[in-house]
Automatic annotation (TrEMBL), chain A:
Domain of life: Eukaryota
Predominant place of localization: other
Biased composition (Polar residues): 254-272
Classification of source organism: Eukaryota, Metazoa, Chordata, Craniata, Vertebrata
Source species: Camelus dromedarius (Dromedary)
Protein's recorded name: Partitioning defective 6-like protein beta
Methyltransferase listed as a keyword: no
Stretch list, region Disordered: 254-273
TrEMBL record, chain B:
PANTHER family reported for this sequence: LETHAL 2 GIANT LARVAE PROTEIN, LLGL SCRIBBLE CELL POLARITY COMPLEX COMPONENT 2
Domain called Lethal giant larvae homologue: residue spans: 273-372
Protein's name in the database: LLGL scribble cell polarity complex component 2
A biological-process GO annotation: regulation of establishment or maintenance of cell polarity
Highest taxon, organism lineage: Eukaryota
Transcription regulation is among the record's keywords: no
Function description: Part of a complex with GPSM2/LGN, PRKCI/aPKC and PARD6B/Par-6, which may ensure the correct organization and orientation of bipolar spindles for normal cell division. This complex plays roles in the initial phase of the establishment of epithelial cell polarity.
Family classification: Belongs to the WD repeat L(2)GL family.
Gene of this entry: LLGL2
Organism: Camelus bactrianus (Bactrian camel)
Compositional bias of kind Basic residues: 658-669
GO molecular function terms attached to this record: GTPase activator activity; myosin II binding
Length: 372, 1035
């Protein structure tokens, strides 16, 4: 606190940075030393001090260079905010009880021009209901697309991170058949497909998986030749760190690399069959190592602890209790899952899906789900 | 990275692996499932049994066994040995004939199919014209006479199966040669019987179903005699001298007809209805056998009074004023009588009656007064009460072995002392290297002790736990049921008795200490009995203790069965294993795990609610531990709560099966895709669409702590190891649950001299929660040399090196999904092998075994034998957890087979291929128990290697199975019987259910019973993974 105050007095120096902080209708201006911003807690105290709101719980946000309103709630994002502020750091403070969480996020400030007014007059948007996403306390991945550089464009390798037990993985798989290019021409082969996403589940919330995506691998192991039950067991056994490689039913959102302009899947299917496994082994190995090593042991003194390992694990129990961050589906620009791909690729497969697409609703209701 | 390299490319290791491991299915023990035909060769003294699934099994002297499987999966209807030859002919229900022969290869005989043949009539003839009803192998050894439904008798030449048109005896030809008064067309119809004249090979007897019997002269093509009966003919028998014919009929009568060349006398000498005068059922087969003493034996099947005994399966023996109707508990398939073999012998002098019933083989000694049964050395009816569990103990000390045999021999006093009469062939198999016991627990509360050392699984002793409890029926009642002057003179024979008085008596877990003779068995209603071997009969009270596994948990209600009521006061126990302590778990849920430590005198038991430790020396409970998760309602309420959703779950299962059938059809690899005909692709597409409408889905969800039955105790293990600190080892008890928790308790067992004075104490030392939460199926402690700790008392008996207590011990925890090695005493993870995550299979059974090398006499390694839910058997190395070999053993759909598998300590194993048969397999190159036998026929002409018999040592040297799996194709006992698993009794039970479910025949109506039985199998698999219900529920 003292240090911050001292910096505040020395504004105008070369190493300092102007801060413009806004709470309600009030502005405060002060400065920070760019090289020594201090800790978030000190900064938080400073803000409460300058706004004269010592006992009010507030949320702190800042506008980054892209105009996004991003939260400041720990040292990391505080330092990020300070280091990227140019020339001035704009801070927005909201009371926690009347906070508008939706104001945060990518494109928030540029897309919605009125976001600042929202922040200004919180009662503005009480009219339209919105989904309350929990305030991100810390950043951690929920899902990711990995190995984009080594996979064929038509494939997508998705990693789902399961923390704690709050949110179900939430998807179903089924048997089906797909068309492959083989030396004998096109051939129908059995395959495993995503049949359903549980609303609100992790799989749906990532937006990276959709109904009718064909599952090609689970944690690097090809599923071809395996039964539905085997694949189910593999996925469940890997559920803490599930990496599935799919061929999305909708090929329109593929990551397109420079060399290729269109996702011609006939070719890339071929690719997937040849020379593929070697890449897999290398690609996710390091993460896999710590996936489920963390068995808990309770010694006779009754205090639970993680089982130590030969390779010490940096992950602690705390990580299990962290609140999940999730995105609304669709936000990432994926087309809703029921939509049918019209791409000419893998035509056999797609036509089948076309015929069954109208039954999609029925599928979900019929749901003879056998829980394992 | 390292983990993804394929294990074992080290050439030295590969070579060693070949010396250590090899997979063979060696022999099938027990009684063939669904037998359908019986054959016997008087000259070879070998018995043949055919089954509904197309298998034939040959049995001679103990150890002489052969097996063959027809390529067609059709029922064997008849088996006929060719007289005086090592050949037999089988008739299948698709009307095809197959010629099999026993050929000597490498010093041992092998059963091979040589030829097959289907009788073809003239073009355009009705199929019934060539539908074979009777087969007569002619004594010329070259001809086969085939009676058909049309009434024609065809002659076929062997071994090539050439039809001899000119020798056909058509019914028209017979008709023309009959005298005028006997010529009605109605006398023909199908041929029911064909018999060769006992003395004159040129005469055969033809019996037609409408009652006409003719003696046909083969050379002159004429009718020598004819007999006309007023009743439908069932069968005929020719007296040994040829002077008398006995026919049996559908009205329950039999007639004697004198044969003389001169008079074609159409009237019977004598006709009688043995169980008249009220209407009787047909006598379907009759034997008329002469004796030296003069009075003949009449042995016939059926003929019981229709109204009161029509449902019995009886064979009557009448001789010298005595008559007994042997009453079988299952349908009689066929029977034969063993008589003096020589064709020149003047009299039959029958000595044994061999009856093949649907569920057992019964042999009756006809020489001894009272006609006692003979105890079969093989073909044991394993399922005389449904098998609910099994336990194998290797290398039994001679002392215990003898005591068990002694106890068993006192139970077998009702058996005849006659040597086993079926004694053809010579067994060349070396004597078993050690004595092995297989214990089977049964639904009726019995434990059967089987000699599993060799090829013949022989019953040694039967233990019944029923006496300890009060049950509805008093066992003494049934003995006096038979009155003095009963008519018909029924006598129950056989041991097959599938009806259990009380399913709670079922045995679920068995543990025998081979050194001390302590046995503990646990059952369906939470009962745990500790028994001790006593050579004398004794009367004593069984001490009862209740173990309250719920302890202070509140508000739970058990809706399952009541606990068993123990018989108060002293009970008399026969010599053998006698119970002295009864622990009853409360709630009385099925006991799911059991361990006995005979040195510490401790018994540990677990149910779906928790586990307990009992000190059977002081007879007091040491502790109980509740493992229940508070949210686990299912475990608390017991099995009944599952019933309410039965209908729904049945429907779901039906759908699921239907779909999986569709999809499996889809998955069958078709030929080259271009050649698929249009129609089939359309059908496929239709099937596919059908599937898309209602797909089989599987939910992908991480296992959570809230899953039900997490408290279900899967495994218990005693170990003397470093649990608390690395300086002192102490006794410990380990328990693993369905929810992936391992509890470790440190025990303090007082030294022997103060054993009775001080209590055994236990305190919880550790609790390990596996994060993947898969059920723990095995716990093992490895000593400093990474060798599994020896069994209790093993070291004391100098049978094992004492474990290495210097180096650090390691704990191996096997869950359904992973193998993990932890250090001790500080539990830290050292190694793991993920099975499910990598290949999607789950561990069903795991057991440590010692694999000996076939090259170096004393070299051996300890490894884990693992059976997965896919039916694969793998060997995983200790302590590095490297997969060594993998063989596919059981079909993955055969969940009851997978659930029944037990491993031995030396790399063999057993699993049920039907309710009544164990398949024995071996993973070891060294321990291989399989039949090796030689059958010689003195009369065989084309067999010219008599020297083989003299060199059995050489024969055993070049073992037929000593090679690796590569010779699997030519092995006769390989995939045989695998497809014979659908079993009908289950289907029948379920037929009722399916009607209720479906009302009328739906699209899958015809398949419904089959599907349901499949469903039950599936259910059983699920339940196997869960607690509460074990195999017995479905029997």
């Amino acid at each position: 606190m003292n240090r911050s105050n001292r910096h505040g007095t020395g504004s105008g120096c070369l190493g300092t940075m102007e801060v413009k902080s806004k709470f309600g209708a009030e502005f405060r201006r002060f400065s920070l030393e760019r090289s020594k911003p201090g800790k978030f807690e000190e900064f938080y105290g400073l803000l409460q001090h300058v706004h004269k709101i010592p006992n009010v719980d507030v949320l702190v946000g800042y506008a980054d260079i892209h105009g996004d309103l991003l939260p400041i709630n720990n040292d990391d994002n505080y330092h990020k905010a300070v280091s990227t502020a140019n020339p001035l750091l704009r801070i927005f403070i909201q009371k926690k009880e009347e906070a508008d969480y939706s104001a945060f996020g990518t494109d928030t400030l540029t897309k919605k021009k009125n976001v600042l007014t929202n922040v200004l007059r919180p009662d503005n948007h009480r009219k339209k209901p919105h989904i309350v996403i929990s305030m991100p306390q810390d950043f951690r991945p929920v899902s990711s697309i990995i190995d984009v550089d080594i996979l064929p464009e038509t494939h997508r390798r998705v990693r789902l991170y399961k923390y704690g037990t709050e949110k179900p993985l939430g998807f179903y798989i089924r048997d089906g058949s797909s068309v492959r290019v083989t030396p004998h021409g096109l051939e129908k082969v059995p395959g495993i497909f995503i049949s359903r996403l549980v609303p609100g589940g992790l799989a749906q919330s990532t937006g990276l998986l959709a109904v009718n995506d064909e599952v090609l691998e689970v944690n690097g192991i090809e599923v071809s030749g395996k039964s539905l039950d085997q694949v189910t067991d593999m996925m469940i056994a890997n559920s803490r760190n599930l990496i599935i490689t799919v061929r999305p039913a909708n090929q329109r959102n593929n990551v397109i690399r420079n060399s290729r302009t269109s996702g011609s899947s006939g070719q890339s299917t071929d690719n997937s069959l040849l020379g593929y496994p070697q890449q897999i082994e290398a690609s996710f190995e390091p993460e896999d190592e710590d996936s489920d090593e963390d068995d808990i042991i309770i010694e006779d003194n009754g205090v639970p602890q993680q089982i130590p390992k030969a390779v010490p694990n940096t992950e602690s129990l705390e990580s299990l209790t962290q609140i999940e961050l999730s995105f609304e589906s669709g936000q990432n620009g994926f087309i809703p899952s029921n939509e049918v791909s019209l791409a000419p690729v893998a035509s056999g497969t797609n036509t089948e899906f076309e015929t069954c697409a109208p039954d999609q609703k029925l599928l979900e209701e019929d749901g003879t789900i056998i829980t394992l | 990275m390292r983990r993804f390299l394929r294990p074992g490319h080290d050439p030295a290791r590969e070579r060693l692996k070949r010396d250590l491991f090899q997979f063979n299915k060696t022999v099938e023990h027990g009684f063939p499932h669904q037998p359908s035909a019986l054959g016997y060769s008087l000259s070879l003294r070998i018995l043949a049994i055919g089954t509904r699934s197309g298998a034939i099994k040959l049995y001679g002297a103990p150890g002489v066994e052969f097996m063959g499987l027809h390529r067609e999966n059709n029922a064997v209807v008849q088996i006929h040995f060719l007289p005086g030859q090592c050949q037999l002919v089988t008739l299948l229900d698709d009307n095809s004939l197959h010629l099999w022969s026993l050929k000597v290869k490498g010093g041992v005989s092998e059963l091979q199919e040589d030829e097959s043949f289907t009788l073809r009539g003239p073009p355009g003839a009705a199929p019934s014209a060539t539908q074979i009803t009777v087969v007569l192998p002619h004594s010329s050894q070259e001809l086969l006479y085939l009676g058909t439904e049309s009434g024609n008798v065809f002659a076929v030449q062997l071994p090539a199966f050439c039809t001899l048109e000119d020798r056909t005896i058509s019914s028209d030809a017979v008709l023309q040669r009959l005298p005028e008064e006997a010529r009605h067309r109605r006398v023909f119809e199908m041929v029911e019987a064909l018999q060769e004249h006992p003395r004159d090979p040129n005469q055969i007897l033809i019996g037609y179903s409408r009652g006409l019997i003719v003696i046909w002269d083969l050379q002159g093509s004429r009718v020598l005699c004819h007999f006309l009966s007023s009743q439908q003919l069932e069968n005929i028998c020719w007296q040994r001298d040829g002077h008398l014919i006995v026919s049996c009929h559908s009205d329950g009568s039999y007639c004697q007809w004198p044969v003389s060349r001169d008079t074609q006398q159409p009237e019977p000498l004598r006709s009688c209805v043995p169980y008249g005068p009220f209407p009787c059922k047909a006598i379907t087969k009759i034997f008329w056998l002469t004796t030296k003493q003069g009075l003949p034996f009449t042995i016939f099947q059926g003929g019981m009074p229709r109204a009161s005994y029509g449902d019995r399966h009886c064979i009557s023996v009448v001789h010298n004023g005595e008559q007994t109707a042997f009453d079988f508990t299952s349908r009689v398939i066929d029977f034969t009588v063993l008589v003096e073999a020589g064709p020149g012998a003047a009299f039959d002098d029958p000595y044994a009656l061999v009856v093949l019933a649907e569920e057992e083989l019964v042999v009756i000694d006809l020489k001894t007064a009272g006609w006692p049964p003979v105890q079969p050395p093989y073909l044991a009816s394993l399922h005389c009460s449904a098998i609910t569990c099994s336990h194998h103990i290797s290398n039994i000390p001679l002392k215990l072995w003898e005591r068990i045999i002694a106890a068993g021999s006192q139970q077998n006093t009702h058996f005849s002392t006659m040597d086993w009469p079926i004694d053809g062939g010579t067994s060349l198999a070396p004597a078993p290297p050690q004595r092995d016991l297989l214990l089977t627990g049964h639904e009726d509360g019995t434990v059967r002790f089987w000699d599993a050392s060799g090829v013949c699984l022989r019953l040694l002793y039967k233990l019944s736990t029923v006496r300890v409890f009060l049950t509805d029926t008093d066992p003494s009642e049934s003995l006096n049921a038979q009155g003095e002057d009963e008519w018909p003179p029924l006598r129950k024979v056989g041991s097959f008795d599938p009806y259990s008085d009380d399913p709670r008596l079922g045995i679920q877990k068995i543990f025998l200490c081979k050194y001390s003779g302590y046995l503990t068995v646990a059952g369906t209603a939470g009962q745990v009995l500790v028994l001790e071997l006593n050579d004398e009969e004794a009367e004593h009270a069984v001490e009862q203790v209740e173990a309250d596994l719920l302890q202070d948990q509140e508000g739970y209600r058990w809706k399952g069965h009541e606990r068993l009521c123990a018989r108060p006061g002293p009970v008399c126990f026969e010599p053998g294993f006698q119970p002295f302590v009864l622990v009853q778990c409360q709630p009385p849920a099925v006991v799911t795990s059991l361990a006995l430590h005979s040195e510490w005198r401790l018994v540990a038991f677990g149910t779906s609610h928790g586990f307990g430790l009992f000190d059977h020396q002081q007879r007091r409970q040491v502790f109980v531990k509740c493992t229940l998760h508070p949210s686990d309602q299912l475990a608390l309420e017991g099995p009944l709560s599952r019933v309410k959703s039965l209908k729904k779950s049945l429907r779901q299962s039906f759908r699921r099966i239907r779909r999986s059938r569709v999809s499996s059809r889809k998955r069958r690899p078709a030929g080259p895709p271009g050649e698929v005909p249009e129609g089939s692709t359309r059908a496929e597409r239709a099937g596919l669409q059908n599937m898309e409408l209602a797909p089989v889905q599987r939910k992908i969800e991480a296992r959570s702590a809230e899953d039900s039955f997490t408290g279900f105790v899967r495994t218990l293990y005693f170990a003397d190891t470093y649990l608390k600190d690395s300086s002192r080892h102490c006794p410990s008890l380990w328990a693993g649950t369905n929810g992936g928790t391992v509890y470790a308790f440190a025990l303090r067992v007082p030294p022997a001299e103060r054993r009775m004075d001080e209590p055994v104490r236990a305190e919880q030392a550790k609790e390990i929660q596996l994060m993947h939460r898969a059920p723990v199926v095995g716990i093992l402690v490895l000593d400093g040399h990474s060798v599994p700790l020896p069994e209790p008392l093993e070291v004391a008996h100098d049978l094992s090196k004492s474990p290495d207590m210097q180096g650090s011990h390691q704990l191996l925890v096997v869950s359904e999904e992973q193998f993990k090695v932890f250090t001790l005493p500080k539990v830290s993870a050292r190694l793991k092998l993920k099975l499910t995550a990598l290949e999607g299979s789950r561990v069903r059974r795991v057991s440590a075994a010692r694999f000996g090398s076939c090259r170096a006499e004393d070299y051996g390694e300890h490894h884990l034998a693992v059976l997965t839910n896919l039916g694969d058997i793998q060997v995983v190395s200790l302590p590095l957890l490297k997969p060594q070999v993998r063989y596919s053993c059981i079909r993955r759909e055969d969940v009851s087979g997978i659930a029944s598998c037990v491993f031995t300590k030396y790399g063999q194993g057993f699993y049920l291929i039907s309710p009544s048969e164990f398949e024995r397999f071996s993973l070891s190159t060294k321990w291989l128990v399989e039949p090796r036998c030689l059958v010689n026929s003195a009369e065989t002409k084309n067999y010219s290697r008599p020297c083989n018999r003299s060199s059995p040592e050489k024969a055993s040297g070049q073992a037929r199975n000593s090679g690796s799996q590569s010779d699997g194709e030519e092995r006769r006992s390989g995939p045989v019987m695998e497809h014979a698993l659908l079993n009908d009794e289950r289907a029948v039970v379920i037929g009722v259910l399916s009607e209720w479910l479906w009302g009328t025949a739906s699209a899958t109506g015809e398949d419904a019973p089959k599907l349901l039985s499949l469903y039950l199998l599936l259910q059983r698999n699920e339940q196997d993974a869960r607690p509460g219900c074990t195999m017995n529920t479905h029997y």
